[in-house]
Amino acid sequence: MNKTYPSFAGASTAIVTPFLNGKIDEQAFVKLLEFQLAANVRGILPTGTTGEAPTLTPEEQLRVIELTIKTVNKRALVIAGTGSNSTAKSIEMTQKAEQLGADAALIVVPYYNKPSPEGLYRHFKEIAASVTIPIVPYDNPTRCGIEMPVPTILRLAADCQNIIALKDSVGNIDRIHQLKAALPAHFELLSGDDIFTLPLLKAGGVGVFSVASNFIPAKIVQLVSLFASGKIQEAEQLHEHLTPFFKNIFIECNPVPIKTALAMKGMIKEEFRLPLVGLTKEHRAILEKTIQDLDLN
């Protein structure tokens, strides 16, 4: 590489967007950010899936990114979620995030329109060429309807200097091994699913963009740190302890369960934007019991 880019190694938080009476609750959001920073997370990822980006207006999305950058104030990386299923819109939002001071941009695989591998390649290449900050593709086939082929990822890593990491929510360890063996040494693999974090670390990944860390940032930081320092057995024990929470924060569509957990803790109001709605009574009881049983409050 001709340029030095930041490492994403460690635990970063894909942060929720709190609402109050239909608008962004900026006061609550700043408190959430300070809660994360107090736990020494590596980065904050605003306006991703967990941040309900699909229901934010472009102005709201940029405001959340701006508020994150201002509040974090270089105490952690800010990886702005700026991707969509439109290349032109993704370029515009990524350029604006760079202008605001984002350290990197997370770009989700285009959803709904299902581009070919060549279309995927050109989409990410055009976005990467439009900015100087690092680009992190986000591969999440359950959300997007398609999975980015390994050869496409390898092409992008070879051809785009600032595509330096991948957020993986595919959950296929064989695929991670394949990527790790073929990608440049500097290219980082990160988990996009908390329950997949430890297996990915064992396969050569370096960290996680976590949903669970919205609620338990110190424990997610500890989990990744234990593994990085060679305390594998302790990391495994912590991962096993937290597994019920990892599962039940996806008992319904993310971010509904994690926002509900934060509301139970009094950190935000329990408010979503349609088409997302609150947890069912049964699922709420399961989530509440999980938090109590694991003593996570």
Name the descriptors.
single chain; 297 residues; alpha/beta; TIM Barrel; 8-stranded parallel β-barrel; 12 helices; 10 strands; globular
Topology:
Elements (H helix, E strand, L loop, with lengths): L9 E5 L4 E2 L2 E2 L1 H13 L4 E3 L12 H15 L4 E5 L5 H14 L3 E5 L8 H13 L5 E5 L1 H4 L5 H10 L5 E4 L4 H10 L5 E4 L5 H6 L4 E4 L6 H12 L3 H17 L7 H9 L16 H13 L4
Parallel strand pairs: 1-4, 1-10, 4-5, 5-6, 6-7, 7-8, 8-9, 9-10
Antiparallel strand pairs: 2-3
Describe the structure.
Helix 2 runs parallel beside helix 3, helix 9 runs antiparallel to helix 10 and helix 11 crosses helix 12. The strands form two sheets. The chain has an eight-stranded parallel β-barrel with strand order 1-4-5-6-7-8-9-10, surrounded by four helices. The chain has a two-stranded antiparallel sheet with strand order 2-3. It has one domain: Aldolase class I (TIM Barrel). It has twelve helices and ten strands. 46% of the residues lie in helices and 13% in strands. The N and C termini lie far apart (44 Å). The mean pLDDT is 96. It has 297 residues and is α/β, with parallel strands linked by helices.
